[in-house]
# Entry
Amino acid sequence: MVTKAPATRRSPVVTRWQTGYAVRLLITDVLVVAGAVLLAQYIRFGHSPMDGLYGFAGSRATMFSAALISLWILALSVFQTRSATVLGVGFDEYRRVVSASFWMFGFVAIASLLFKLGPSRGYLAVALPVGTIGLLLARWLWRKQTIRRRRRGDCQTPLLVLGDRASVSVLVSELFHNSDHVFRVIGVGLYGHATNEDHLEVDGVRIPILGDETKALESVKECGAHTVALTGTEHFGSAGIRNMLWDLEAKDVDLVVSPTATRLVMQPMPGYPLLHVERPQYQEAKRFHKRALDFAFASTALVLASPLLLLAALAIKLTSRGPVIYAAERVGLDGQPFTMYKLRTMMNNADSLLADLAAKNEGAGGMLFKMREDPRVTPVGKTLRRFSIDEIPQFFNVLKGDMSVVGPRPPLRREVVNYDGEVKRRLLVRPGVTGLWQVSGRSDLSWDDSVRLDLSYVENWSMGTDLVIILKTVRAVLGRDGAY
# Structure
């Protein structure tokens, strides 16, 4: 069904949600920080703070607690944890909260050591973890509420997307698939648009085309956008982007730019700043960090999941003929083949039946075989797949060094044969038990989407990204839409 994006006029309600959200965060931060600090004082000094360490009398302890609360709230402001750019975003907001808390406590600990003004280390040892965890939990709860409101169309910023047809379609599609995002697309502008076409259809939704790049300012006024997203920046050049930025600033409209390159870091130069493109972090010493995370996580996962593995193995053995473990060839790092292990979820002769089912392949493009009601899957196998229990043995592959906990999808040899030059970059890192493609759509992604997400992961890998993907994987597995 094709629906039309609703026309939206600029309203103070859209900006008020950001202001109201920031105020609620401030109030929550004060309550959490005050509660953590006073709890630490109570635990350390008891009902009567007069028994302080280093002659730290009760009144001075209370004064120190008040100062610590103020410094903590100030640090959260300095690190811009309530900035409009991170409100309800998630990882970046959490990272700023943790950084602000640890930097503040590091400063207090050093000052206390040098001037012997602070309380005991036990006092700080209680306040820091309790307060930090409390702040993260409060931010998470507020974000969950905001996501629910965004799915109803609230708490979003009206966005005008400007660029060529291909890049605009990709960005709009990503925003549609991620319904909890801060932006809501209300119009697009296409470079060189000179036809009578008045709508751009993306994923079944019709978005108004408001003209070309020469009518950007008029389009902003017409649709009431608060932010303009610019794709295909080479079309404008640095002078064009600068002039557009100045024009939009005068109208109190923000500008966000989608660059053609990734891993960008500002490199200041007098009068002409440059963007430095960093090398991919999967090279050299970064591989050691990733390998250490893989080994620690895989070992822990196998120990904790061992009872579940035994029950699953018993269920497979009692309900169908064939081995418990399904071993299949996959292609890994640098194109080297390896044997990947999974719990068997299909009939023992499933591979021989694949040719008969080829005509029923639901995978877009035909590169991947997907079938929601695959007759080869056993009843037990459906349950194992639903919660990804069948993939637990892949952690043995992680320990062997064939795979990583997070990485691109492990491809078949017949897929790799058809890789072009760009797709081959998936093989620059070890394939993963989970990955960006899984948490972005599970089994419903097309081949092109899967490739794009895998390449994005390869180019922009970081330890923080891996941790976020692991957390999102847990949510995806426990959610309503599992694998099939």
In short: DSSP finds 15 helices and 13 strands in the chain. Residues 1-14, 47-57 have pLDDT under 50 and may be disordered. Residues 286-478 form one domain. The chain has three domains: 12-150, 157-260, 286-478.
